[in-house]
């Protein structure tokens, strides 16, 4: 079996989560780590028991890698991803794909022209809680008529860059993107959307959002997201309502569901599952490496990533312009 020779670009928090997972996959060789702060690259190389280190993407290219994980901050994803694809390398890039439409389009064009595989890291899809919801829906046990989503953050004070949209792209790109991605993953294509937003604490950006979505399947859903709710639970929750049925998540820890009247209410509790597993990181990495080895589709390919990038831009547009958006028409125009 040929091994996938991986380089990691950006050696901070999330890089260490992926490096830990990949170091346990026999199909992967972690060849090198690069970071503009070479001390960070050295620390991560030590954590995985040794790898070459460098400061730039070109340093990784010289290490003869075939796949690169781009794990630098949000607004620095586009240039390295495009450079990797132009080199014919496979790329796993952490969320977000880009923080504007032009960046997403540059990646899409580069991916379509490359022999490399592009994948966007959207781990929340594979969190145990959401895997369970998806399984209930796919099996036909729960037909989603209506749903209510929420994803909050405690504050945008620590670290200070979280309040700076030039670093994050905006709160939706930093945090709420996870729940926004789940919408189409669970319910299929969105038909229309509307978003109301306000600058409650931040003067630099919208920090409170209420959104309403309709889906081509007929499902309707709302999503609420606040950037400054304090650190008391609950932060994230999905509630799906079907025919005399409800399934509800509690953080990434539990799912509670009842599928009909006069039936037992069941709870699955993932408290004891290690974070990288229950958070979906291990599965997204496994699916990505599977795709490289078996030649199938990666878990979040460039079409899905582009649709998500369009969706975030459309939500902000709706908030700014106070109007409903025909999102299905947008996707047809941009992706076909
Ligand atoms: N999926 C998730 O649950 C999840 C969780 C955390 C972070 N993330 C995403 O991962 C990315 C990184 O976040 P993080 O929390 O690991 O950040 P971090 O600050 O811990 O690490 C970023 C690293 O990138 C390096 N870096 C920054 N600019 C660089 C450049 N131009 N060239 C080379 N190195 C550079 C920094 O020195 C740092 O070591 C972000 O896009 C974030 O949205 C995803």
Description:
- The chain is α/β, with parallel strands linked by helices and 336 residues long.
- The protein folds into two domains: 113 residues, NAD(P)-binding Rossmann-like Domain (Rossmann fold, 3-Layer(aba) Sandwich); 176 residues, Dihydrodipicolinate Reductase, domain 2 (2-Layer Sandwich), CATH 3.30.360.
- The protein has twelve helices and 15 strands.
- Helix 4 packs parallel to helix 5, helix 5 runs antiparallel to helix 11 and helix 11 packs across helix 12.
- It is globular and about 60 Å long.
- The model has no long low-confidence stretch (mean pLDDT 97).
- Bound molecules: nicotinamide-adenine-dinucleotide (NAD).
- Nicotinamide-adenine-dinucleotide binds next to helix 1.
The number of helical elements comes to 12
* N- to C-terminal distance: 37 Å
Task: Give Rg in angstroms.
Answer: 20 Å
Poorly predicted residue ranges: none
- CATH level 1 class label of the largest domain: Alpha Beta
DSSP strand (E) fraction? 15-25%
The largest pleated sheet is described as: 9 strands, mixed
Run of helices and strands: EHEHEHEHEHEHEHHEEEEEEEHHHEH
C-alpha geometry: globular
